[in-house]
Design brief:
By secondary structure, the chain is α/β, with parallel strands linked by helices. It has a domain of about 230 residues: NAD(P)-binding Rossmann-like Domain (Rossmann fold). About 40% of the residues lie in helices and about 20% in strands. Strands 3-2-1-4-7-8-12 form a seven-stranded parallel beta sheet, with helices on both faces. It has a three-stranded mixed beta sheet with strand order 9-11-13. A two-stranded antiparallel sheet has the order 5-6. The longest helix has 22 residues. The protein is globular and about 65 Å long. It starts with a strand and ends with a helix. Bound molecules: nicotinamide-adenine-dinucleotide and 2'deoxy-thymidine-5'-diphospho-alpha-D-glucose. Nicotinamide-adenine-dinucleotide binds next to α1, α4, β7 and β9.
Length: about 350
C-alpha cells in the first residue's frame, strides 16, 4: 500500500487529483497537507472526507517542524507537490509570498523527504518526489513553435520565476544527491473547483451575476487549455512510470485566444441559461503587466514514453465545466460572499 503526501490538496488541481486517485485505486493512502489559504477549500473534498484511505492535515509547507513530523510519523512513498501561490495577477502585486511558498516551501519538502529517504548508498527503493510545475517557466512564444522539455527556462512574472526557481532546486536535488524526482510542466487547467480569480471561472461567475467581463489587452493572448482530469491522469502516469530526473510537459494542443474563451462561455450560457447574457458585457481593460503572449505545449515526450493522451476535447471540457458551475452554485456563492469580493474590487477597480 503506497502512501502519497499530496500538498495543496484543497486547491483546484490538488483536490481533483485526490478524488481521481481515490476513485481509481483502493490500495493507496493519501495524506493531504494544506495551509488553507484563500485558495484552499475543504468543500472540494467532501466526497472523500470519510474515505479511510484519506487524511487531512492543516500545515504550511514552509513549516519545518510540521513537515518533518509528517515524514517521521508516516512511511511516505510519494510526494506530489501542488501547494503554491498560483495566480499571476496576485504575484505582480505581492511577490514575497510567492518566493516563500513556491521556493522555500519546495526546498523544505525536498529536505524533509531526503532526510528520511536517503540511505548510506543512495535512496530507499520506490520513493519519488514529483514537483507540479508549469509551462509558464518557459516564458512566452511568438506565433509559431511549442515548448519542449529542452526549451530554455525564461520566466517573466514573479509567479513563473518562483516556479522556475523551485524547478531548479528540484533539479539540484537530483543532480547533487540523485534524489528520485520528476518535474511536470502543464498548460492552463480548467474544470471543477477552480477558484474564480482565474479566467474561465471568473467569466462564468461574472456572466451569472451580470457583471462586466474584463478582457486584458486585445484579448488575443493564447493559452493551451487542459481539462483537469487529463492532467491528473498524466501525473499518475509520471509517478508510476516516469524516468527519474526527467521533466514531462503535459498539454493537448488546445490553443485558444482569451476572447474566444470568453465568447464561447457567453454563447453557451446565453443559449442554455439566460438569453440576456450578451457579448456587450465584455470590457477590454488595461493589460496585465508583462503579459505573456502565447503558451503552447509539445506533449510528444509524455505521449511516446508513457502513452498519455488527453481524453477531453476543449469543446466537451468547457461544457462540462460550465455545467459543473451551474450545478454547484452554492460553492461559488460561498466564495463570492467571502474575502474574494475585496480582492476582486481592488484588482478590477482601476481596470
Ligand atoms: P490553487 O491556488 O487552486 O491551490 C493551491 C493550494 O495550495 C491551495 O489549497 C492552498 O491553500 C495551498 N497552499 C498555498 N500555500 C501553501 C502553503 N504555504 N502550505 C501549504 N499549502 C499551501 O492552485 P492550482 O491551480 O490547483 O495549482 C496547483 C499547482 O499546479 C500549483 O503548483 C501551480 O503552480 C500548478 N499549475 C497550475 C496550473 C493551472 O492552470 N491552475 C497550470 C500549471 C501548473
Ligand atoms: O499556463 C499555466 C498557468 O496557467 C498556471 O501555472 C497558473 O497557475 C494559472 O493561473 C494559469 O496562469 P494564466 O495567467 O495563464 O491564467 P489566468 O486564468 O489568470 O489568465 C488566463 C489568460 O486570461 C491570461 O492571458 C490573462 C487573461 N485574463 C485573465 C483574467 C483573470 C483576462 O483577460 N481577464 C481576466 O480577468
Amino acid at each position: 500500500m503506497k502512501t502519497y503526501l499530496v500538498t495543496g490538496g484543497a486547491g483546484f488541481i490538488g483536490s481533483n487529483f485526490i478524488i481521481y486517485m481515490l476513485n481509481k485505486y483502493d490500495d493507496i493512502k493519501i495524506i493531504n497537507v494544506d495551509k488553507l489559504t484563500y485558495a484552499g477549500n475543504l468543500e472540494n473534498l467532501r466526497s472523500v472526507q470519510n474515505n479511510l484511505n484519506y487524511k487531512f492535515v492543516q500545515a504550511d509547507i514552509c513549516d519545518k517542524e510540521s513537515i518533518t513530523k509528517l515524514f517521521e510519523e508516516n512511511d511516505i512513498d510519494y510526494v506530489v507537490n501542488f501547494a503554491a501561490e498560483s495566480h499571476v495577477d496576485r504575484s505582480i502585486r505581492e511577490p514575497e509570498v510567492f518566493v516563500k511558498t513556491n521556493v522555500l516551501g519546495t526546498v523544505n519538502l525536498l529536505n524533509a523527504a531526503k532526510n528520511v529517504w536517503e540511505t548510506e548508498d543512495g535512496f530507499k527503493e520506490g520513493k519519488k518526489y514529483l514537483q507540479v510545475s508549469t509551462d509558464e517557466v518557459y516564458g512566452s512564444l511568438g506565433e509559431t513553435g511549442y515548448f519542449m522539455e529542452t526549451t530554455s527556462i525564461d520566466p517573466h512574472s514573479p509567479y513563473s520565476s518562483s516556479k522556475a526557481s523551485a524547478d531548479l532546486m528540484v533539479k539540484a536535488y537530483y543532480d547533487t544527491y540523485k534524489m528520485p524526482v520528476n518535474i511536470t510542466r502543464c498548460s492552463n487547467n480548467y474544470g471543477s473547483y477552480q477558484f474564480p480569480e482565474k479566467l474561465i471561472p471568473l467569466i462564468i461567475n461574472n456572466c451569472l451575476n451580470k457583471k462586466v467581463l474584463p478582457v486584458y489587452g486585445d484579448g488575443l493572448n493564447v493559452r493551451d487549455w487542459l481539462y483537469v482530469e487529463d492532467h491528473c491522469k498524466a501525473i499518475d502516469m509520471v509517478i508510476n512510470n516516469g524516468r527519474l530526473g526527467e521533466v514531462y510537459n503535459i498539454g493537448g494542443h488546445n490553443e485558444r485566444t482569451n476572447i474566444h474563451i470568453v465568447k464561447t462561455i457567453i454563447k453557451y450560457l446565453s443559449e442554455n441559461v439566460d438569453n440576456t447574457i450578451k457579448e456587450e458585457f465584455i470590457k477590454y481593460v488595461e493589460d496585465r503587466k508583462g503579459h505573456d503572449r502565447r503558451y503552447g505545449i509539445d506533449p510528444t515526450k509524455i505521449k511516446e514514453e508513457l502513452g498519455w493522451e488527453p481524453e477531453t476535447t476543449f469543446e466537451a471540457g468547457i461544457e462540462k465545466t460550465i455545467q459543473w458551475y451551474l450545478e454547484n452554485k452554492e460553492w461559488m456563492d460561498n466564495i463570492n460572499s467571502g474575502e474574494y469580493q475585496n480582492y476582486y474590487n481592488k484588482m478590477y477597480q482601476t481596470k
